[in-house]
Design brief:
mainly alpha; membrane; transmembrane; O-antigen polymerase
């Protein structure tokens, strides 16, 4: 085979891998749940089938093409899985909650397997930028559907309550479904659960805010205002989710990362951040105004359409916060009461579902849930995984000082990883919707820290 033909074949193979990787990135938020519902019946688990097939296919391509490459985050994750499997064997031998263990274990294995597989796919820096851009655009499409949901509810249009991603039955929402709260807020887009929707939007939102704050208009988009517009839409989506978890995390990320990092790297473009935030608020404000018009057409009173924090809402918010604090304290107490071996290695995944020592079937804090399930060793390995990703991304400008675009995106992705880690303090378990940021961070790091690639992702030969 000639050199030209060989190059063309390799280019085509890398394009196939890039397409598969794009499919994986888009599918990750839907791990582990039924995708559609016909009346009251969920339709299978096509997401598990699809993501399992893609992961296996990418892994096989990698193993046949070159030696398996394990970066430090992959080793930490595999060590974490090995520890979990060891506890799982103990659960199986003792006849304890093996079914509860397996429901979480299968999803966790897919998440870890996907990470190990995709960081072995060879991409060019341009292709990594494309993946990040695709992630942002897919999030924007979810926001646009969320906007439509609000309008559709006001005007009784089709697909106002269309469900793509159906989790297990949850508790009554704190807001969004009573007569005094406008239905255009507290939407869930494709996630059904509004807090999941807000949590999924946060990492790409923070990534865009970091780029906007530094005026990095050419990192992802050709126009500064394209970036500002994308950021505005994402901010509006987070606000429209009406998720307290999303609000707290967004404010925390702004003050803990976006502003300090942008000032340090300079110049901090405050007016760009204000522009994006203002546009997002105005876009969101236009949605309830449509509801006002719609309700006035049928002679309903203004009091019904005004968005107010009612007495009931305040009570429910306080009750929710109190429940979470109590739940977290009980989880910590439960872990501390275990014998030394289980303090180190945990009781196995989903262990809190089988104890009366904790209110509810799980902890409202992912780290405490992992502490009870995988012990100090397991949660320590997972925290090291997050810390390593964040640290390597933060030092990207030092390691790639001559590549402005790479440095800017590394800093922005670090904000996404930090945001994803912050969300886990307020949500139970490692929901797949939070995994996308970690996945893209790993792909970015292995790409920019390997030998230079040309635009097809093919390694340049020494002869060139």
């Amino acid at each position: 085979m000639s050199t030209v033909e060989e190059g063309t074949t390799c280019s085509q193979e890398y394009n196939v891998e890039t397409l598969l990787l794009s499919a994986v990135v888009l599918a990750v938020p839907f791990y582990g749940w039924t995708l559609f519902r016909i009346e009251s019946f969920p339709v299978g688990r096509p997401d598990l089938l699809a993501i399992g097939f893609l992961t296996v296919y990418v892994t096989v391509c990698v193993l046949f093409r070159h030696q398996l490459r394990l970066d430090i985050p992959s080793l930490l994750l595999l060590g974490w899985v090995a520890e979990i499997i060891g506890v799982g064997v103990w659960i199986f031998l003792t006849g304890k909650h093996i079914l509860d263990f397996m429901t979480v274990f299968i999803q966790l294995m897919l998440l870890v397997g996907t990470y190990v597989a995709v960081v072995n796919v060879r991409l060019s820096e341009n292709n990594v930028m494309t993946l990040v851009r695709l992630w942002i655009l897919s999030s924007i499409s979810m926001v646009l559907f969320g906007f439509y949901q609000g309008i559709a509810r006001a005007f009784s249009l089709p697909f106002a309550y269309l469900r793509f991603n159906i989790p297990a039955p949850g508790t009554v929402q704190r807001a969004g479904y009573d007569s005094l709260f406008p239905e255009v807020f507290r939407v869930a887009s494709v996630f059904v659960e509004p807090s999941w929707y807000g949590a999924h939007l946060l990492p790409p939102t923070v990534l865009c805010l970091v780029l906007v704050a530094q005026g990095n208009r050419k990192t992802l988009f050709h126009s500064r205002w394209s970036l500002v517009g994308a950021t505005s839409i994402l901010v509006a989506g987070v606000v429209q989710s009406a998720s307290a978890t999303a609000y707290i995390t967004l404010v925390g990320a702004l003050f803990m990362y976006v502003v300090p990092v942008s000032i340090y790297r300079g110049p901090f473009q405050l007016h760009h951040v204000l522009s994006a935030t203002t546009i997002g608020v105005l876009v969101l404000a236009s949605v309830p105004s449509l509801r006002v018009v719609a309700l006035e057409l049928v002679d309903l009173s203004w009091e019904i359409v005004v968005w107010l924090q009612t007495g009931n809402e305040a009570v429910l918010s306080f009750a929710s916060a109190t429940h979470r604090l109590t739940n977290n304290y009980q989880t910590l107490q439960y872990w501390a009461s275990l014998d030394p071996v289980h303090i180190l290695f945990g009781q196995g995944l989903n262990s809190l579902a089988n104890t009366s020592a904790v209110q509810g079937a799980s902890s409202s804090n992912s780290y405490l849930q992992l502490l009870a399930d995988t012990g100090a060793v397991g949660v320590g390995l997972f925290i090291l995984f997050l810390t390593y990703l964040f640290w390597k991304l933060v030092v990207t400008p030092l390691e790639h000082s001559s590549q402005t675009r790479v440095a800017n995106l590394g800093i922005a992705l670090a904000g996404s990883v930090l945001t994803g880690a912050m969300i886990l303090f307020q949500t139970g378990y490692l929901r797949p919707a939070r995994w996308s940021a970690f996945l893209l961070a790993g792909i970015f790091l292995v790409t920019v820290n390997q030998p230079k690639f040309n635009d097809t992702g093919r390694t340049r030969s020494k002869e060139q």
